[in-house]
Amino acid sequence: MWVKALDMILEKMKSSGFNFSQVRALSGAGQQHGSVYWKKGSIQILKNVSSELPLHQSLKGCFSVSNSPIWMDSSTASQCNALEEAVGGAQHLASITGSRAYERFTGNQIAKIYSQNPEVYKQTERISLVSSFAASLFLGTYAPIDYSDGSGMNLLQIWEKVWSKSCLDACAPGLEERLGCPVPSHSVLGTISPYYSQRYGFSPDCKIVAFTGDNPASLAGMRLQEGDIAISLGTSDTLFLWIQEPTPALEGHILCNPVDSQTYMALLCFKNGSLMRERIRGDCASGSWDEFSKALSSTVAGNNGNLGFYFDVMEITPEAVGIHRFNRDNQKVSGFPKEVEIRALIEGQFMAKRIHAEKLGYKVLPRTRILATGGASHNKTILQVLSDVFNAPVYTIDTANSACLGSAYRAIHGLVAERNVSLADVVKSAPEPRLAVTPTAGAEELYRPLLKRYAELEQKVIYNPTSSCLAK
Ligand SMILES: Nc1ncnc2c1ncn2[C@@H]1O[C@H](COP(=O)(O)OP(=O)(O)O)[C@@H](O)[C@H]1O
Ligand SMILES: O=C(CO)[C@@H](O)[C@H](O)COP(=O)(O)O
């Protein structure tokens, strides 16, 4: 599916008259943590694809696992426990790799494949991330994993930037040779495969710069500066920060910074993002964003004290599941009127973000800018609530697909990064983020007590397998 999608995009660009020969370098991004398993012998097929055929036809026999595990998978709890135990506990794993063990992280996904189907693992010569997989297609050979996306695997020592032997050994045998050596995110991996010059007219000199994860690429696209906070409202909601001296903890992730190998990015991921908003939009607003936004604006900030937690699937931050609604007296209620439900959802999602960002040590300061991206950043009514809850202005960039824009920025940066030119320098003439909304007067006073209440109530809804009131 992924290879065919690439074929279709390039065919569409070709038929729209895009001049491929002008492209000097390209990079890209893939959803983080997902993995692709190349069958033994596939490298030869990849190196020798015929430009007469669409790529997906040539590569269809190349994969030892046909359905790639992606970030939404959470079936690896036992592998996570085993990994943490093998390296001396959750905090120790976080200190090495930037995160305690998470179900979606690639090392645990690989461990599951190995333990359930050792034969399939044996037949696999190379394991790519989604990002390095896409880079491999352009390179015509296996592309290395970059430091930043590699930090989402529970396998990379984020300080030394090498695979951790104890983590590799705990996941599967012979893993190092299947992963290849990780590289700095700005690396030029080589030139484009002849397939693309012959079929689409790319220049044979077009450089392929290492691909990275969607969130790291968004950090580049938004030209995040220290002190800013980026909030991506895509399928998942993510929040990320540029960080100089991180302290990995039991919550959140520390990744190598994709645009500056000396620094880091902190990331929090909220699984019940857009899909949850879409579900409530369906239940309460006839499936229309317009109706959803009108209902949101028709209710007052603070929702008269009504608060809600909306987790259709087990949440990552915090670990909780189910729908939990509380009235102003903290009594659990079974339902809200439609408009109240919509506001409770949006205010709840943003209060959780502020509370968990502050737990990471982030402080909202007078100079704080929130940079919003992803599909829901088109929606100003949603952004207004974000601004009010954080009491900070929200900025957007012209293209809501900041991961894609960031990939283009990273491609240009890759051409000069070895000369110590920063990404900020390379893209200094790009348009600045635009102010979208500012906080409503009085928002801070209104939300301060609500944030405290929300944090206290969150403790009550956190997943506890022995409690009967949780699984709805
Ligand atoms: N006007 C809107 N208001 C709220 N959400 C929206 C709006 N338009 C699109 N979305 C949401 O944006 C999401 C897609 O965002 P996108 O950044 O493209 O996702 P991904 O993270 O998968 O790349 C959809 O799930 C959709 O719910
Ligand atoms: O798991 C995470 C981040 O840790 C996700 O953010 C994935 O990177 C994919 O995100 P979407 O593009 O589907 O929102």
Give a structural overview.
With about 475 residues, the protein is an alpha+beta fold. The protein has two domains: about 190 residues, 2-Layer Sandwich (Nucleotidyltransferase, domain 5), CATH 3.30.420; about 260 residues, Nucleotidyltransferase, domain 5 (2-Layer Sandwich). About 40% of the residues lie in helices and about 15% in strands. The protein contains 20 helices and 19 strands. It has a seven-stranded mixed sheet, sandwiched between helices. Strands 1-8-7 form a three-stranded mixed sheet, with helices on both faces. Strands 14-15-16 form a three-stranded antiparallel sheet. Strand 5 and strand 6 form a beta hairpin. The protein is globular, with a radius of gyration of 23 Å. The protein binds adenosine-5'-diphosphate and 5-O-phosphono-D-xylulose (5SP). The site of adenosine-5'-diphosphate (ADP) has 12 residues, from helix 14.
Strand fraction band?
15-25%
Cα radius of gyration in angstroms: 23 Å
Assigned CATH class of the largest domain? Alpha Beta
Low-confidence parts lasting 5 or more residues at pLDDT below 50? 468-472
Brief write-up:
This protein is an alpha+beta fold and 472 residues long.
Please tag this protein with its features.
472 residues, alpha+beta, Nucleotidyltransferase, domain 5, seven-stranded mixed β-sheet, three-stranded mixed β-sheet, 41% helix, binds 5-O-phosphono-D-xylulose, ATP-binding, ATP binding, D-xylulokinase activity, ATPase_NBD
